[in-house]
Structure formats: structure tokens, C-alpha cells
Amino acid sequence: MRVLNIIQDSIVDGPGLRSTIFFAGCPHKCRGCHNPQSWSVGGGKELKTMEIFELLMKNTLNDITFSGGEPFYQCHDELHTLASALKERGKNIWCYTGYTWEDLISRQSSKAICKLLDVVVDGPFVAEKRDLTLSFMGSRNQRLIDCSRSLSEEKTVLYVI
Known about the structure:
Helix 1 runs parallel beside helix 2 and helix 2 (76-88) packs parallel to helix 4. The chain contains 5 helices and 7 strands. Strand 4 (63-67), helix 2 and strand 5 (93-96) form a beta-alpha-beta unit. It is α/β, with parallel strands linked by helices. It has helices at residues 49-57, 76-88, 101-105, 108-114, 147-153; strands at residues 2-10, 18-23, 45-46, 63-67, 93-96, 119-122, 143-146. Helix content is 25%, strand content 21%.
């Protein structure tokens, strides 16, 4: 997988201390994006799934956030393998995506990944809806989705901070 960076000890990409992996490549190209250097799928460096896992596990106290770019843009099998290995270690996993929850669960490959995630922050960043008062979101159209409850109740359930 192509990775731009892995940041340890983030406090802005979900609750508590988190290790955030920034994946390369994004089809959304949102106007006003805070990370436009992530748009190119050729950016960053190529890392094997288990290399990423080992880097993330160096800080065993942190939970995990997938960001980007667009985490669902690259290899679904590798992202599933990574999320599964992290879940086996008891990690809480958040994922930022420009896709909507409804779009993600309509495709089997991304739905399988969502089953391993705790929270999805969904929707593209919309500059006209930018709101600095929101927790863990950039614009008012985005939502914090409780993945487990949404899948079990078969409806979109918002995560409450």
C-alpha cells in the first residue's frame, strides 16, 4: 500500500492518543482539502501490510486512525488484512473517508472492512460547510458513524462523543 506518513500520538484524529496512517491517493479532490498532497496515488512510499502493522504496533498504547488521501481508494484486501490484524490486538479503529456510509456498505469489499472499524467519519469535505466547532470533522455534512450499531441495526447510527 502507498503511505504518505504515519503519525504517532495524534489527538485530533479521534478520541485519545492515536496512531494515524495517511494513505496516498484520493479520487474526491475536495476543494479546500487540508491535505491535497495526498491526492496522488503515486505519492509517499510503498509499504507491505505487515510493515505498516509493525510500525503501528510500536506504540502499543495508541488506538488507530486511517486517513488520507482516501483509505478505501487503494487495495481493499490489504486494508482488510491490516484492520483485521489491528482488531486482533484490541485496537479501536477510526477511518476518515470521502465516501458516504451508504456507499461503503453497498459494496461487499468495503462493507467487509467496515465490519472491522469502530467509527467511520464519512462524506467529502465541503468548504462552504466548514465548521471549526465540530469534533473530529471538518464540515457539517460529515458524520461520525457507529459502525457496529449501524451494521447490526441495519440503519445509520451516529456515534456520540
